From TrEMBL:
Its main location: nucleus. Belongs to the NUF2 family. It comes from the Eukaryota. InterPro entries: Kinetochore_Nuf2_N, Nuf2_DHR10-like, Nuf2_N_sf. It comes from Mycena indigotica. This is Kinetochore protein NUF2.
Length: 445
Protein backbone atom coordinates (compact mmCIF):
# COMPACT_ATOMS: atom_id res chain seq x y z
CA UNK A 1 0.00 0.00 0.00
CA UNK A 2 1.42 3.38 -1.04
CA UNK A 3 1.99 6.04 1.56
CA UNK A 4 0.54 8.88 -0.54
CA UNK A 5 1.40 12.56 -0.29
CA UNK A 6 -1.13 13.32 2.45
CA UNK A 7 -0.92 12.86 6.21
CA UNK A 8 -2.81 9.84 7.57
CA UNK A 9 -5.80 10.57 9.76
CA UNK A 10 -6.82 8.83 12.92
CA UNK A 11 -10.18 7.19 13.42
CA UNK A 12 -11.39 10.09 15.55
CA UNK A 13 -10.44 12.61 12.84
CA UNK A 14 -12.26 10.56 10.20
CA UNK A 15 -15.37 10.22 12.39
CA UNK A 16 -15.42 13.95 13.21
CA UNK A 17 -14.95 14.94 9.55
CA UNK A 18 -17.75 12.66 8.35
CA UNK A 19 -20.00 13.82 11.19
CA UNK A 20 -19.44 17.42 10.11
CA UNK A 21 -20.72 16.41 6.67
CA UNK A 22 -23.81 14.75 8.13
CA UNK A 23 -22.63 11.13 7.94
CA UNK A 24 -22.37 9.53 11.39
CA UNK A 25 -20.20 6.44 11.87
CA UNK A 26 -18.44 4.73 14.78
CA UNK A 27 -15.07 3.16 15.40
CA UNK A 28 -16.45 -0.36 15.18
CA UNK A 29 -17.49 0.25 11.57
CA UNK A 30 -13.99 1.52 10.78
CA UNK A 31 -12.43 -1.42 12.60
CA UNK A 32 -14.53 -3.97 10.67
CA UNK A 33 -15.63 -2.29 7.41
CA UNK A 34 -18.31 -3.87 5.23
CA UNK A 35 -18.95 -3.28 1.50
CA UNK A 36 -22.18 -1.36 2.14
CA UNK A 37 -20.54 0.82 4.77
CA UNK A 38 -17.48 1.52 2.60
CA UNK A 39 -19.63 2.34 -0.43
CA UNK A 40 -21.78 4.71 1.62
CA UNK A 41 -18.76 6.49 3.13
CA UNK A 42 -17.01 6.79 -0.24
CA UNK A 43 -20.21 8.15 -1.81
CA UNK A 44 -20.50 10.70 1.00
CA UNK A 45 -16.95 11.89 0.28
CA UNK A 46 -17.62 11.94 -3.47
CA UNK A 47 -20.77 14.00 -2.93
CA UNK A 48 -18.82 16.69 -1.07
CA UNK A 49 -16.77 17.37 -4.21
CA UNK A 50 -18.96 16.45 -7.21
CA UNK A 51 -22.53 16.29 -5.79
CA UNK A 52 -22.71 12.75 -7.19
CA UNK A 53 -23.92 9.73 -5.24
CA UNK A 54 -25.69 6.45 -5.94
CA UNK A 55 -29.12 8.12 -6.04
CA UNK A 56 -27.96 10.78 -8.51
CA UNK A 57 -26.86 8.03 -10.92
CA UNK A 58 -30.22 6.24 -10.99
CA UNK A 59 -31.87 8.68 -13.40
CA UNK A 60 -29.01 8.62 -15.99
CA UNK A 61 -28.85 4.82 -15.76
CA UNK A 62 -32.60 4.56 -16.37
CA UNK A 63 -32.42 6.93 -19.35
CA UNK A 64 -29.46 5.04 -20.80
CA UNK A 65 -31.22 1.68 -20.48
CA UNK A 66 -34.40 3.10 -22.03
CA UNK A 67 -32.44 3.93 -25.18
CA UNK A 68 -31.29 0.32 -25.54
CA UNK A 69 -33.07 -2.70 -26.97
CA UNK A 70 -32.46 -4.90 -23.93
CA UNK A 71 -35.29 -7.13 -22.78
CA UNK A 72 -34.55 -7.43 -19.06
CA UNK A 73 -33.35 -3.91 -18.22
CA UNK A 74 -33.57 -4.36 -14.44
CA UNK A 75 -30.94 -7.07 -14.68
CA UNK A 76 -28.39 -4.56 -15.98
CA UNK A 77 -29.44 -1.51 -13.93
CA UNK A 78 -27.51 -2.42 -10.76
CA UNK A 79 -24.40 -3.46 -12.68
CA UNK A 80 -24.36 -0.28 -14.76
CA UNK A 81 -24.98 1.89 -11.68
CA UNK A 82 -22.11 0.22 -9.79
CA UNK A 83 -19.86 0.59 -12.82
CA UNK A 84 -20.59 4.32 -13.12
CA UNK A 85 -20.09 4.80 -9.39
CA UNK A 86 -16.75 2.97 -9.56
CA UNK A 87 -15.76 5.17 -12.50
CA UNK A 88 -16.45 8.38 -10.54
CA UNK A 89 -14.76 7.05 -7.39
CA UNK A 90 -11.68 6.06 -9.42
CA UNK A 91 -11.41 9.56 -10.88
CA UNK A 92 -11.91 10.99 -7.39
CA UNK A 93 -9.16 8.71 -6.04
CA UNK A 94 -6.79 9.74 -8.84
CA UNK A 95 -7.42 13.40 -8.01
CA UNK A 96 -6.82 12.71 -4.30
CA UNK A 97 -3.58 10.83 -5.16
CA UNK A 98 -4.85 7.55 -3.74
CA UNK A 99 -2.82 4.98 -5.65
CA UNK A 100 -4.16 1.70 -7.04
CA UNK A 101 -7.81 2.35 -6.23
CA UNK A 102 -10.07 -0.42 -7.58
CA UNK A 103 -13.34 -2.25 -6.94
CA UNK A 104 -11.62 -4.42 -4.31
CA UNK A 105 -11.46 -1.37 -2.03
CA UNK A 106 -15.28 -1.22 -2.12
CA UNK A 107 -16.45 -4.81 -2.24
CA UNK A 108 -13.59 -6.49 -0.30
CA UNK A 109 -12.53 -3.74 2.13
CA UNK A 110 -9.62 -3.99 4.54
CA UNK A 111 -9.20 -1.86 7.64
CA UNK A 112 -5.81 -0.30 6.85
CA UNK A 113 -6.65 0.24 3.20
CA UNK A 114 -10.02 1.78 4.06
CA UNK A 115 -8.42 4.18 6.56
CA UNK A 116 -5.77 5.08 3.98
CA UNK A 117 -8.36 5.80 1.27
CA UNK A 118 -10.56 7.80 3.65
CA UNK A 119 -7.52 9.82 4.76
CA UNK A 120 -6.78 10.67 1.14
CA UNK A 121 -10.40 11.56 0.39
CA UNK A 122 -10.88 13.72 3.50
CA UNK A 123 -7.55 15.53 3.04
CA UNK A 124 -8.42 16.26 -0.57
CA UNK A 125 -11.90 17.53 0.34
CA UNK A 126 -10.54 19.81 3.06
CA UNK A 127 -7.84 21.06 0.74
CA UNK A 128 -10.35 21.90 -2.01
CA UNK A 129 -12.70 23.56 0.48
CA UNK A 130 -9.86 25.64 1.90
CA UNK A 131 -7.86 26.60 -1.20
CA UNK A 132 -9.81 25.71 -4.34
CA UNK A 133 -13.36 26.69 -3.46
CA UNK A 134 -13.34 29.83 -5.65
CA UNK A 135 -11.80 28.01 -8.60
CA UNK A 136 -14.19 25.09 -8.27
CA UNK A 137 -17.14 27.47 -7.92
CA UNK A 138 -16.12 29.32 -11.09
CA UNK A 139 -15.66 26.05 -12.95
CA UNK A 140 -19.04 24.81 -11.74
CA UNK A 141 -20.70 28.06 -12.77
CA UNK A 142 -19.04 27.87 -16.18
CA UNK A 143 -20.03 24.22 -16.48
CA UNK A 144 -23.63 25.00 -15.52
CA UNK A 145 -23.69 27.83 -18.05
CA UNK A 146 -22.34 25.51 -20.73
CA UNK A 147 -24.91 22.85 -19.78
CA UNK A 148 -27.74 25.41 -19.97
CA UNK A 149 -26.46 26.66 -23.31
CA UNK A 150 -26.12 23.07 -24.48
CA UNK A 151 -29.73 22.38 -23.49
CA UNK A 152 -30.85 25.50 -25.35
CA UNK A 153 -28.88 24.43 -28.41
CA UNK A 154 -30.32 20.92 -28.13
CA UNK A 155 -33.86 22.30 -27.90
CA UNK A 156 -33.22 24.62 -30.83
CA UNK A 157 -31.67 21.74 -32.76
CA UNK A 158 -34.71 19.56 -32.05
CA UNK A 159 -37.01 22.38 -33.17
CA UNK A 160 -35.02 22.88 -36.35
CA UNK A 161 -35.01 19.12 -36.91
CA UNK A 162 -38.79 19.05 -36.51
CA UNK A 163 -39.11 21.96 -38.93
CA UNK A 164 -36.86 20.16 -41.40
CA UNK A 165 -38.90 16.98 -41.03
CA UNK A 166 -42.08 19.02 -41.52
CA UNK A 167 -40.62 20.65 -44.62
CA UNK A 168 -39.45 17.26 -45.89
CA UNK A 169 -42.92 15.83 -45.31
CA UNK A 170 -44.49 18.79 -47.06
CA UNK A 171 -41.96 18.44 -49.85
CA UNK A 172 -42.77 14.73 -50.10
CA UNK A 173 -46.49 15.54 -50.26
CA UNK A 174 -45.89 18.18 -52.92
CA UNK A 175 -43.53 15.96 -54.91
CA UNK A 176 -46.27 14.07 -56.86
CA UNK A 177 -47.95 17.36 -57.67
CA UNK A 178 -44.59 18.79 -58.75
CA UNK A 179 -43.97 15.75 -60.95
CA UNK A 180 -47.44 16.12 -62.45
CA UNK A 181 -46.89 19.84 -62.99
CA UNK A 182 -43.52 19.12 -64.60
CA UNK A 183 -45.14 16.62 -66.94
CA UNK A 184 -47.96 19.04 -67.75
CA UNK A 185 -45.40 21.78 -68.23
CA UNK A 186 -43.42 19.61 -70.64
CA UNK A 187 -46.60 18.66 -72.54
CA UNK A 188 -47.81 22.27 -72.70
CA UNK A 189 -44.37 23.40 -73.78
CA UNK A 190 -44.30 20.80 -76.57
CA UNK A 191 -47.85 21.79 -77.56
CA UNK A 192 -46.84 25.44 -77.42
CA UNK A 193 -43.88 24.84 -79.70
CA UNK A 194 -46.10 22.87 -82.11
CA UNK A 195 -48.72 25.64 -82.00
CA UNK A 196 -45.99 28.18 -82.59
CA UNK A 197 -44.84 26.31 -85.68
CA UNK A 198 -48.44 26.00 -86.89
CA UNK A 199 -48.93 29.71 -86.23
CA UNK A 200 -45.83 30.54 -88.26
CA UNK A 201 -47.02 28.35 -91.11
CA UNK A 202 -50.53 29.83 -90.92
CA UNK A 203 -49.12 33.36 -90.89
CA UNK A 204 -47.02 32.59 -93.94
CA UNK A 205 -50.04 31.08 -95.69
CA UNK A 206 -52.18 34.09 -94.71
CA UNK A 207 -49.49 36.39 -96.05
CA UNK A 208 -49.41 34.48 -99.36
CA UNK A 209 -53.21 34.47 -99.51
CA UNK A 210 -53.30 38.21 -98.86
CA UNK A 211 -50.84 38.75 -101.69
CA UNK A 212 -52.88 36.47 -103.95
CA UNK A 213 -56.08 38.24 -102.90
CA UNK A 214 -54.54 41.60 -103.70
CA UNK A 215 -53.55 40.31 -107.13
CA UNK A 216 -57.05 38.95 -107.73
CA UNK A 217 -58.62 42.23 -106.58
CA UNK A 218 -56.40 44.13 -108.98
CA UNK A 219 -57.28 41.70 -111.76
CA UNK A 220 -60.98 42.08 -110.88
CA UNK A 221 -60.68 45.85 -111.03
CA UNK A 222 -59.00 45.57 -114.42
CA UNK A 223 -61.75 43.25 -115.63
CA UNK A 224 -64.44 45.59 -114.31
CA UNK A 225 -62.74 48.51 -116.01
CA UNK A 226 -62.52 46.49 -119.19
CA UNK A 227 -66.20 45.56 -118.87
CA UNK A 228 -67.08 49.22 -118.40
CA UNK A 229 -65.03 50.21 -121.39
CA UNK A 230 -66.53 47.38 -123.44
CA UNK A 231 -70.01 48.39 -122.34
CA UNK A 232 -69.26 51.93 -123.43
CA UNK A 233 -67.95 50.68 -126.74
CA UNK A 234 -70.97 48.44 -127.08
CA UNK A 235 -73.23 51.39 -126.42
CA UNK A 236 -71.44 53.44 -128.99
CA UNK A 237 -71.43 50.53 -131.40
CA UNK A 238 -75.18 50.03 -131.14
CA UNK A 239 -75.69 53.37 -132.73
CA UNK A 240 -73.63 52.34 -135.64
CA UNK A 241 -74.50 50.08 -138.42
CA UNK A 242 -73.38 46.61 -137.96
CA UNK A 243 -71.62 45.22 -140.95
CA UNK A 244 -70.97 41.79 -139.54
CA UNK A 245 -73.58 40.85 -136.94
CA UNK A 246 -72.37 37.27 -136.67
CA UNK A 247 -68.90 38.30 -135.73
CA UNK A 248 -70.28 40.76 -133.22
CA UNK A 249 -72.53 38.08 -131.77
CA UNK A 250 -69.54 35.79 -131.56
CA UNK A 251 -67.54 38.47 -129.79
CA UNK A 252 -70.45 39.16 -127.47
CA UNK A 253 -70.84 35.49 -126.67
CA UNK A 254 -67.10 35.24 -126.17
CA UNK A 255 -67.10 38.24 -123.89
CA UNK A 256 -70.15 36.87 -122.04
CA UNK A 257 -68.34 33.58 -121.57
CA UNK A 258 -65.25 35.46 -120.43
CA UNK A 259 -67.38 37.51 -118.05
CA UNK A 260 -68.96 34.35 -116.70
CA UNK A 261 -65.52 32.85 -116.15
CA UNK A 262 -64.42 36.05 -114.45
CA UNK A 263 -67.48 35.90 -112.20
CA UNK A 264 -66.69 32.29 -111.38
CA UNK A 265 -63.10 33.31 -110.66
CA UNK A 266 -64.33 36.15 -108.43
CA UNK A 267 -66.67 33.73 -106.66
CA UNK A 268 -63.80 31.32 -106.16
CA UNK A 269 -61.61 34.11 -104.83
CA UNK A 270 -64.37 35.23 -102.47
CA UNK A 271 -64.74 31.62 -101.31
CA UNK A 272 -61.00 31.49 -100.74
CA UNK A 273 -61.21 34.81 -98.89
CA UNK A 274 -63.95 33.38 -96.67
CA UNK A 275 -61.83 30.28 -96.06
CA UNK A 276 -58.89 32.50 -95.24
CA UNK A 277 -61.08 34.54 -92.88
CA UNK A 278 -62.16 31.32 -91.17
CA UNK A 279 -58.52 30.29 -90.90
CA UNK A 280 -57.65 33.73 -89.50
CA UNK A 281 -60.42 33.31 -86.93
CA UNK A 282 -59.11 29.84 -86.08
CA UNK A 283 -55.59 31.23 -85.79
CA UNK A 284 -56.92 33.99 -83.53
CA UNK A 285 -58.51 31.34 -81.32
CA UNK A 286 -55.25 29.39 -81.40
CA UNK A 287 -53.40 32.56 -80.43
CA UNK A 288 -55.78 33.03 -77.50
CA UNK A 289 -55.18 29.40 -76.49
CA UNK A 290 -51.44 29.95 -76.82
CA UNK A 291 -51.73 33.09 -74.66
CA UNK A 292 -53.63 31.05 -72.07
CA UNK A 293 -50.91 28.40 -72.24
CA UNK A 294 -48.29 31.10 -71.74
CA UNK A 295 -50.17 32.37 -68.70
CA UNK A 296 -50.33 28.82 -67.36
CA UNK A 297 -46.61 28.48 -68.03
CA UNK A 298 -46.00 31.71 -66.13
CA UNK A 299 -48.10 30.38 -63.25
CA UNK A 300 -46.12 27.14 -63.34
CA UNK A 301 -42.87 29.10 -63.41
CA UNK A 302 -44.05 31.05 -60.34
CA UNK A 303 -44.82 27.78 -58.56
CA UNK A 304 -41.44 26.42 -59.65
CA UNK A 305 -39.74 29.54 -58.29
CA UNK A 306 -41.71 29.14 -55.05
CA UNK A 307 -40.59 25.51 -54.92
CA UNK A 308 -37.00 26.57 -55.57
CA UNK A 309 -37.25 29.15 -52.78
CA UNK A 310 -38.60 26.44 -50.47
CA UNK A 311 -35.68 24.22 -51.44
CA UNK A 312 -33.33 27.15 -50.86
CA UNK A 313 -34.85 27.70 -47.40
CA UNK A 314 -34.45 23.98 -46.76
CA UNK A 315 -30.76 24.19 -47.69
CA UNK A 316 -30.40 27.24 -45.45
CA UNK A 317 -32.00 25.33 -42.59
CA UNK A 318 -29.65 22.43 -43.28
CA UNK A 319 -26.71 24.86 -43.19
CA UNK A 320 -28.06 26.31 -39.94
CA UNK A 321 -28.35 22.83 -38.46
CA UNK A 322 -24.80 22.05 -39.55
CA UNK A 323 -23.67 25.34 -37.98
CA UNK A 324 -25.45 24.45 -34.75
CA UNK A 325 -23.83 21.01 -34.82
CA UNK A 326 -20.44 22.62 -35.36
CA UNK A 327 -21.14 25.01 -32.49
CA UNK A 328 -22.19 22.05 -30.34
CA UNK A 329 -18.89 20.35 -31.16
CA UNK A 330 -17.03 23.56 -30.34
CA UNK A 331 -18.84 23.78 -26.99
CA UNK A 332 -17.94 20.16 -26.32
CA UNK A 333 -14.29 20.89 -27.16
CA UNK A 334 -14.46 24.00 -24.96
CA UNK A 335 -15.79 21.89 -22.12
CA UNK A 336 -12.97 19.39 -22.63
CA UNK A 337 -10.49 22.26 -22.59
CA UNK A 338 -12.01 23.49 -19.32
CA UNK A 339 -11.65 20.03 -17.80
CA UNK A 340 -8.08 19.96 -19.06
CA UNK A 341 -7.46 23.38 -17.52
CA UNK A 342 -8.93 22.05 -14.27
CA UNK A 343 -6.56 19.09 -14.35
CA UNK A 344 -3.66 21.44 -15.12
CA UNK A 345 -4.73 23.67 -12.23
CA UNK A 346 -4.83 20.64 -9.97
CA UNK A 347 -1.35 19.65 -11.12
CA UNK A 348 -0.11 23.20 -10.51
CA UNK A 349 -1.74 23.07 -7.10
CA UNK A 350 0.01 19.82 -6.34
CA UNK A 351 3.32 21.26 -7.49
CA UNK A 352 2.69 24.32 -5.34
CA UNK A 353 1.87 22.04 -2.43
CA UNK A 354 5.08 20.08 -2.94
CA UNK A 355 6.99 23.33 -3.27
CA UNK A 356 5.37 24.57 -0.07
CA UNK A 357 6.37 21.34 1.67
CA UNK A 358 9.94 21.77 0.43
CA UNK A 359 9.95 25.37 1.59
CA UNK A 360 8.49 24.27 4.89
CA UNK A 361 11.30 21.74 5.35
CA UNK A 362 13.89 24.35 4.32
CA UNK A 363 12.31 26.87 6.71
CA UNK A 364 12.38 24.31 9.50
CA UNK A 365 16.07 23.69 8.86
CA UNK A 366 16.72 27.43 8.79
CA UNK A 367 14.82 27.86 12.05
CA UNK A 368 16.87 25.10 13.67
CA UNK A 369 20.11 26.67 12.44
CA UNK A 370 19.02 30.10 13.68
CA UNK A 371 18.00 28.55 17.01
CA UNK A 372 21.46 27.03 17.37
CA UNK A 373 23.07 30.35 16.49
CA UNK A 374 20.75 32.08 18.94
CA UNK A 375 21.78 29.66 21.70
CA UNK A 376 25.43 30.38 20.94
CA UNK A 377 24.68 34.09 20.98
CA UNK A 378 22.90 33.69 24.33
CA UNK A 379 25.98 32.02 25.80
CA UNK A 380 28.23 34.72 24.36
CA UNK A 381 25.85 37.36 25.65
CA UNK A 382 26.05 35.93 29.15
CA UNK A 383 29.84 36.19 29.06
CA UNK A 384 29.61 39.67 27.61
CA UNK A 385 27.09 40.69 30.28
CA UNK A 386 29.53 39.57 32.99
CA UNK A 387 32.31 41.59 31.40
CA UNK A 388 29.98 44.57 31.05
CA UNK A 389 29.01 44.30 34.71
CA UNK A 390 32.68 44.22 35.74
CA UNK A 391 33.47 47.18 33.51
CA UNK A 392 30.38 48.95 34.79
CA UNK A 393 31.51 48.37 38.39
CA UNK A 394 34.97 49.70 37.56
CA UNK A 395 33.38 52.66 35.78
CA UNK A 396 31.17 53.34 38.80
CA UNK A 397 34.20 53.18 41.06
CA UNK A 398 36.16 55.51 38.80
CA UNK A 399 33.16 57.79 38.54
CA UNK A 400 32.92 57.91 42.34
CA UNK A 401 36.60 58.80 42.56
CA UNK A 402 36.13 61.45 39.89
CA UNK A 403 33.18 62.90 41.78
CA UNK A 404 35.19 62.98 45.01
CA UNK A 405 38.13 64.57 43.18
CA UNK A 406 35.79 67.11 41.61
CA UNK A 407 34.29 67.91 44.98
CA UNK A 408 37.75 68.34 46.49
CA UNK A 409 38.94 70.43 43.56
CA UNK A 410 35.81 72.55 43.69
CA UNK A 411 36.28 73.13 47.43
CA UNK A 412 39.92 74.11 46.92
CA UNK A 413 38.95 76.35 43.99
CA UNK A 414 36.29 78.05 46.07
CA UNK A 415 38.80 78.59 48.85
CA UNK A 416 41.31 80.00 46.37
CA UNK A 417 38.68 82.30 44.90
CA UNK A 418 37.70 83.47 48.36
CA UNK A 419 41.33 84.17 49.17
CA UNK A 420 41.72 85.90 45.78
CA UNK A 421 38.77 88.19 46.31
CA UNK A 422 39.87 88.86 49.87
CA UNK A 423 43.35 89.75 48.67
CA UNK A 424 41.89 91.87 45.91
CA UNK A 425 39.74 93.74 48.38
CA UNK A 426 42.67 94.35 50.70
CA UNK A 427 44.73 95.55 47.75
CA UNK A 428 42.00 97.98 46.73
CA UNK A 429 41.74 99.28 50.28
CA UNK A 430 45.50 99.71 50.43
CA UNK A 431 45.60 101.52 47.11
CA UNK A 432 42.75 103.79 48.12
CA UNK A 433 44.41 104.60 51.41
CA UNK A 434 47.73 105.25 49.68
CA UNK A 435 46.09 107.49 47.09
CA UNK A 436 44.36 109.49 49.75
CA UNK A 437 47.60 110.01 51.58
CA UNK A 438 49.43 111.03 48.43
CA UNK A 439 46.51 113.14 47.15
CA UNK A 440 46.35 111.12 43.95
CA UNK A 441 43.29 110.31 41.90
CA UNK A 442 43.19 106.67 40.96
CA UNK A 443 40.40 105.00 39.04
CA UNK A 444 39.61 101.61 40.56
CA UNK A 445 38.10 98.90 38.52
Amino acid sequence: MGKGIFPPLSSNDIISSLSAWGYDINKEQLRHPTPDFVQGVFCACLKQVTDIDAEALQDPVTRALNHTQLVDKDLYATSLSNHLLLRHLTRFADAARVDHFCSRDIYMPERERTLFVLSGFINFIKFTQQYCEDVVRKLRDNSEGIIVEREKVSKKLSQITEEIEHIKAKFALDEPKCVQLREENAAIRAQLFASKEMQVQALEEIKNLKIEKADIVKEKELINAEIVSISALNTRAQSRIVKSPDRIKQKISTMGFTLQQDKQTVAMQESKARDLQAKITALTNIEKDVRGCIEQLQTIEKEVRSLQESQKELHQLKDLVEGQQIRHKELHLHRERLFKQLSNAQEKLERAQRHAEDRKVASQKTIERLQAEYDDMVVERRDTDKQVEDIRAQANEIEGKINEHLKTSETELNQLLAEYWKLRHNTDVYMHTLANKLDMKVDFI
